[in-house]
Design a protein that fits this description.
Helix content: 10-25%
Number of helices: 6
CATH topology: Deoxyribonuclease I, Chain A
Strand content: 35-45%
Mean pLDDT: 95
Radius of gyration: 17 Å
Shape: globular
Order of helices and strands: EHEHHEEEEEHEHEHEEE
Distance between the termini: 5 Å
CATH class: Alpha Beta
Largest sheet: 6 strands, mixed
Strand order of the largest sheet: 3-4-2-1-12-11
CATH superfamily: Endonuclease/exonuclease/phosphatase
Oligomer: single chain
Structural class: alpha+beta
Number of domains: 1
Length: 254
């Protein structure tokens, strides 16, 4: 019999590598900050896959896509979902993992032409576990009606593609400042939210320099929460416009 398995996760809207108001390009500092928490899984939103203008103008702009630059040699497995495509390039969501992906798919959940959104669904093999781990990274719309539609698509995706006894993690920027989404998610999918599970409230993650709004979440099932924290101290408060959400999830494996 094996002991409990702990998974450290980080969910972070990196604002395409810029600080609030796009005042500074800080992807190098973001990389160091992400590495400092030693997460096993990193769920990223607003990741720049390519931008010709920035690459020509910004000296520190990496030669590879941002998700590859951030993964470096630490997260040797990664998946990227291209959502918004424009003349200069594209951006979307990414998952960095220390464990290999069996499969991954990006699902278009856009509800209008101005907000191009996606649901990045990966399946990861972790040694010693009976079931594969399903991981989903997303970034939802600004309007409530659109978010509710996107949650319905998310729920249907999970019901159809994730076995009921398989461990599941859903992380990202839900843009749900009025906290309307947790109840339908919990009731339909039998999930819990990590920060709420420990602290009886969702984490305040926006704006990073003085977090008020509860936008970023980590929902799960098949785990128990060991820790959950909104990272609001230095250097996080001067990087992206969002604070990162760190969790440690544990499940007992056979």
């Amino acid at each position: 019999m094996g002991g409990p398995l702990s998974l450290k996760t980080l969910s972070y809207n990196i604002h395409k590598g810029f600080s609030m108001g796009n005042r500074r390009y800080v992807l190098g500092q973001i990389k160091k900050a992400i590495q400092s928490v030693h997460a096993d899984l990193v769920f990223l939103q607003e990741v720049q896959g390519d931008h010709k203008g920035h690459s020509e103008r910004i000296e520190e702009w990496p030669n590879e896509p941002q998700f590859e630059y951030l993964a470096d040699s630490i997260w040797t497995h990664y998946a990227y979902g291209k959502n918004a495509v424009y003349q200069q390039g594209h951006h979307g969501n990414a998952i960095l993992s220390k464990y290999p992906f069996i499969a991954h798919e990006n699902i278009d959940i856009s509800t209008n032409r101005l907000e191009k959104r996606g649901l990045l669904h990966g399946v990861i093999q972790i040694p010693g576990l009976v079931h594969e781990l399903h991981v989903i990274c997303l970034h939802l719309n600004l309007l409530k009606r659109s978010r509710m539609r996107q949650i319905s698509v998310l729920s249907q995706r999970i019901e159809e593609h994730v076995p009921a006894d398989a461990p599941l993690i859903i992380a990202g920027d839900f843009n749900d400042w009025r906290v309307n989404l947790s109840k339908p998610l919990i009731e339909r999918l039998n999930v819990k939210e990590a920060h709420f599970d420990l602290h009886d409230e969702h984490a305040r993650t926006f704006p990073s320099w003085m977090p008020i709004l509860k936008l970023d979440r980590v929902y799960y099932r098949g785990f128990r929460t060991q820790s959950a924290e909104s990272l609001t101290c230095e250097p996080w408060r001067t990087l992206s416009d969002h604070a990162a959400l760190y969790t440690e999830l544990v499940f007992d494996r056979p």
